[in-house]
């Protein structure tokens, strides 16, 4: 999101505004002000961000209960409880979670959070350079174990332009995973109209750095991995809780999980 074009103050930061939207406490006053303003101008954008967080929590919990105890969370953002490691290591205390983000400040806050926590690590890396990311020792340790790894790409691919070839990026990440591994993706939808209650100009400016894609385009990011039922669907409808299943809130976000055979 191009928060710089939406903010009400010069100090607002995109990652911290997103953190504010999903209930985090990492933001400054400028971030909270920008978030509140965007929430009034584009309430469905706020709902979608919250839906993304809820989807990721459900997906990680579902995978952990399938016996997956190794996770690589790429584009992890500022840590907000329940975090990936809290869910995954809560199910399997001997497991491992490696967070990855391009933002050094995210890295600093994440390292503070996981300091002394066995099985949790952070690496600085850019999803647009997947080979470099995969070469990080902490990531290699999971891949070389030969055991299943869940690679989580939560709301990060829609920041990757077509010129960077997101299909190549996702193929590189998938091919590195051992048999039995899983691939998790959530992505802003480009083929679902936004409701009239959202300010059109605000959405346009918010999406200047985003690349919404259709359900078909998102499905291609899973390659030949076998999609877990119900496939690529609205994120709010992927293994929903009773509350989520009954919600009528807009959520122009796709989510899916697939397994490498």
TrEMBL record:
- Give GO BP annotations, semicolon-separated: methylation
Instruction: Work out whether the entry's keyword set contains Methyltransferase.
Output: yes
Q: Is the Methyltransferase keyword given for this protein?
A: yes
MF (Gene Ontology): methyltransferase activity
Q: Which Pfam families match?
A: Methyltransf_19
- For this UniProt record, give its keywords in alphabetical order, as a comma-separated list: Methyltransferase, Transferase
From the Swiss-Prot or TrEMBL record, give the protein name.
SAM-dependent methyltransferase
| Record organism | Streptomyces adustus
